[in-house]
C-alpha cells in the first residue's frame, strides 16, 4: 500500500512529535503526577527557581547611587582622630602592589607578621642578620613565581617564626638593591606563593 505525500508528511510530523514528547517525558517516566503529590508553596517555588530563568524581585529598596551599602565599616576619614587606612588606628597598610603587571597581589595586613619589620629594617641598614650565611644571599627564582630578572637581582632574608629552633618557611625576597630594594615580596610557605609589601 502506498501513501500519498500529504498523508506521509502528517505521519512524519506525528512521529517526530511523539519522539519529542517521549524525550521530554524521560525524566518523569513511571511517575504519576496525580493529585496525591503535594504541591510546593509559592515561596518554595521561588526559592527553587533558577534566578536566570525566573528572577524574583528583591523587596528591599536599593541604596541611592551616591551612597555605599552599609557593610559595617565607616568610610575612611583622614581628618578623624586616630584615622588610618588599615583600621588599626595607627600606621598605613603595608601591602602595596608596586608592580601591578607581575601578577602578584599586595599582601593583606593580616598576612604580614610583626617580625617582618625588624628584618626589613636590617635589610635597609645592610645588616646584621640572624643568619649571616643565608640572609642576603641570592634568591634564584628557580620556580619562576617572581618576574624574571637578571641573576643576583633578588636576595632572600629569614623572617623568624616564634617557637621554631630553625629558619622556618617565612622569607622576605627583595629585589633591585642590597640596602634600598625596588621591590619587596613576602612568602610564608617557603617560596610557594608570594605577596608584595612596602616596609
Which helices and strands, and how do they pair?
Elements: H1 5-24, H2 42-48, H3 115-125, E1 137-138, E2 154-158, E3 171-175, E4 183-187, E5 195-197
Antiparallel strand pairs: 1-2, 2-3, 3-4, 4-5
CA-atom Rg in angstroms: 33 Å
| Proportion in helices | 10-25%
Number of helices: 3
Apparent shape: rod-shaped
What is the second-level CATH architecture of the domain at 109-143 and 151-197? Roll
User: What distance lies between the first and last C-alpha atoms, to the nearest angstrom?
Assistant: 93 Å
Q: Could you name the CATH class of the domain at 109-143 and 151-197? A: Alpha Beta
Q: What do these coordinates show?
A:
- This protein has 199 residues and is of the alpha+beta class.
- It has a domain at 109-143 and 151-197: Roll (Nuclear Transport Factor 2, Chain: A).
- The chain has helices at residues 5-24, 42-48, 115-125, and strands at 137-138, 154-158, 171-175, 183-187, 195-197.
- The protein has a five-stranded antiparallel β-sheet with strand order 1-2-3-4-5, with helices on one face.
- Residues 91-104 have a biased composition (Basic and acidic residues).
- InterPro entries: N1-like (IPR000026), Ribonuclease/ribotoxin (IPR016191).
- Residues 35-49, 70-83 have a biased composition (Low complexity).
Amino acid at each position: 500500500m502506498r501513501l500519498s505525500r500529504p498523508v506521509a508528511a502528517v505521519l512524519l510530523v506525528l512521529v517526530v512529535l511523539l519522539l519529542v514528547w517521549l524525550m521530554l517525558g524521560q525524566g518523569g517516566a513511571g511517575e504519576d503526577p496525580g493529585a496525591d503529590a503535594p504541591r510546593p508553596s509559592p515561596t518554595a517555588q521561588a526559592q527553587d527557581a533558577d534566578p536566570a530563568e525566573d528572577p524574583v524581585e528583591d523587596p528591599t529598596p536599593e541604596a541611592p547611587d551616591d551612597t555605599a551599602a552599609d557593610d559595617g565599616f565607616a568610610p575612611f576619614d583622614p581628618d578623624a582622630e586616630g584615622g588610618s587606612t588599615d583600621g588599626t588606628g595607627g600606621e598605613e597598610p603595608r601591602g602595596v602592589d608596586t608592580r601591578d603587571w607581575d601578577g602578584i597581589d599586595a599582601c593583606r595586613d593580616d598576612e604580614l607578621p610583626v617580625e617582618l619589620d625588624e628584618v626589613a629594617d636590617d635589610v635597609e641598614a645592610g645588616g646584621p642578620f640572624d643568619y649571616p650565611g643565608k640572609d642576603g644571599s641570592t634568591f634564584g627564582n628557580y620556580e619562576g613565581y617572581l618576574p624574571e630578572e637578571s641573576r643576583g637581582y633578588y636576595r632572600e632574608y629569614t623572617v623568624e617564626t616564634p617557637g621554631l629552633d630553625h629558619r622556618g618557611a617565612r622569607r622576605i625576597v627583595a629585589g633591585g638593591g642590597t640596602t634600598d630594594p625596588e621591590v619587596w615580596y613576602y612568602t610564608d610557605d617557603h617560596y610557594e606563593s608570594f605577596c608584595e609589601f612596602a616596609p
